[in-house]
Amino acid sequence: MKVLKFGGTSVGNIESIRAVVEIIATRERPLVAVFSAFSGVTNILNDCLRMASERDSGYHRLLNETEGMHVAIAQSLVRSENATGVTSQIREMTARLSNILDGIFNIGEVTLRSSDMVLGFGELMSIKVIYNALSERLDDVIHVDARELIFTRLVNREERVDMTATVKATKEKLSDNPGVIVTSGFVSTSIQGYPTTLGRGGSDHTASLIAAAMDAELLEIWTDVSGIFTADPLYTEDANSIAELSYAEALELSHFGAKVIYPPSIHPVMEKRIPVLVKNTFAPSDRGTLITEKASPNGNAIKAVSSTDGICLVSLTGSGMAGVVGIASRLFSALAVNHINVILITQASSEQSICIAMDELQGERARGVIDGEFEYEIRSGRVHPAILEKGYSIIAMVGEGMKHSVGISGQAFSALGRNGVNIHAIAQGSSELNVSAVVKMSDCRKAVDSIHQEFFRSANKVINLFIVGAGNVGTAFIEQVLTQSGYFEKEYRTEFRITGLANSRKMVIRAKGIRGPEWKRQMMESERKTDLELFKKEMFELNLPNTIFIDNTSSPEVTDLYQMILERSISIVTCNKIAASSAYDSFINLKKLAIAKRSHFRFEGNVGAGLPVIQTIDNMIKTGDKLLRIEAVLSGSLNFIFNCFCEGMKFSEAVVKAMAGGYTEPDPLTDLRGTDISRKLLILVREAGIRLEASEIDFKNYLPQPLPETYDPLTFHSLLSDFDEFFEMKREGLSERSKRFRVIARYGNGRAGVSLEKVGSDHPFFNLEGNDNIVSLFSQRYSERPLIIKGAGAGADVTASGIFADILSIINN
Question: Which of 130, 186, 215, 360 matches a 20 to 30 Å C-alpha distance to 420?
Fold first, then answer.
């Protein structure tokens, strides 16, 4: 015999019930089918109870709606000649239910017995419809009232299943029947004769009790998902169905939030070693999840990540607890007497604190109970009043493979730390079957997703990119990401997801990502105007794992957000030089903040575009070298301009060509007045561990007159033309003497400066082509022959590649 249980979603509407009929029709006999109330009905009945006890007559309307729903389903599934009888039974039951609720309304109080009586009507009404629908398709269907099978007795003011009476009655009623037996879940009868229920997950419990009593070969739980998943699919896109679980693993997952099964449904079949198969009513061909005594390994140390919300922490602390026998016993006895369920326990080895986790609804009462139990110790100052903290979730990693694996907890907690998830309490049993951590409820989704991506090979690591700036560099960067996305998914199971995107006018944020080559159109068609504060706020609210903020602008308004972003443990990659060249203390504080928050502040694109200049200096210093001197051409745009000039082009024409090639900053005045190259030199010197402020850099102006404060494209070309005569005079003698102009940045002996210089053919900077940069680093190790880094130092593509390289560095770390 097999026992099949169908939950509320499996009988939620006409089409789903027809699917259930088809499933039962194709199964081998004998079998027992256990049914829940129609989807949502138990919640409606709970609302009716509440309204009646509050003397709100609105429950009559809910009853009429419930009756109408059952009648409509019956009339659709049952032939008209039989439907009349079914609908008549439904109306009779609704009338009885109305009378009970009227009584509750009159006295303004709900008792445990009246509550059980009302809530059980959902199952009693649904079975009438389902039995008649099955009878029209099958000839071997009988209905057995579950209240004649499942019996309870009162134990410590709670109704508990009386196994002896239940097994005896079930065998008497169900044995020797070769066909299909249908019955209700959830409802039961006290051995004293009054109606009772089995509580949350009661229909699963009913099915499990029947399976155990009848020594069934299999218990099938039919629901609306294809088994038990590696994580909640609402939290983790890559969650997938688990092929096999052990009873112990299933119990742990059900205890910590897996809603497909409930702990009571496992115990009866576990004692009889009866397998449980979780299947999908709407995809019956899917494999599902098989729960047995010993499940096959799935190749992962952990089988699943589960979570439960609405948790509070209650802590008892005090020096007077240390070494005192019986503190824990008194604490848990007091909670037990008051029927307060504890979900998780941690105790410091110093014995000066005990922290317990429980449902938030019990938190205030628990605090009062504990303060009452330890009233004397609190008054004497040996123990502090209990501390109640709300708004938490419990994350549980479950798997029998953990006991044979080293470093699982460290790996999981490291993943949480990288994503800025703070752990408030930890618990692990000696069986190593479950490692649990308490986190803020606002971090629950990110925590589950982070751990799932860390451990499951089937899951892609999703890197969520929030990009500000979609000009030349931003566009090149996005195109590189889209072009390489297939490669990274195939080779490294890493998905780059553009989750947020903004330019100076429009912004768009999509948790599922801005996908495809039409990304710019999607952004520009957005109805949302760019608001950096709102962009930041929504990035924080999404709270996604592996989030990186990319700044492709030269805007100080964007850099003003850096501190708040790093404080949320979100890494920053930027080609914007403003932050790294700001006041020294501000810059250092950002770097320290990134370290403290286990995030990254990367700005390789600040100097040399995609050249590994900053990384090289960083590695030199970390390995014990000391930088002594820098000589460099750091402005690709100025080098391009003066290369063109030295080849015969007018100065104004050379600047325009550099702008057209995308080599200059968005504001070309930044390049021409030396601000950009000075910032680059400043950043390099600081990376060498040397304190330097921008005001200490001696920039020797090479222009004949000051530049305007702001860039005006309408007057800019006229302004440039005014410089041509001056530079033509400087050109004289260059060719004859084999000289070229170079804007050179230097640091040495504590002094930094930038100047326009003529260099001869014997100078290493003479043959610098196009927009190339060159950096010569003299150090204690490279004192005679410098370490030289040379290559293209300007342009959207190479700058974008530097940004991309920083992102890859973050992922690798």
Answer: 360
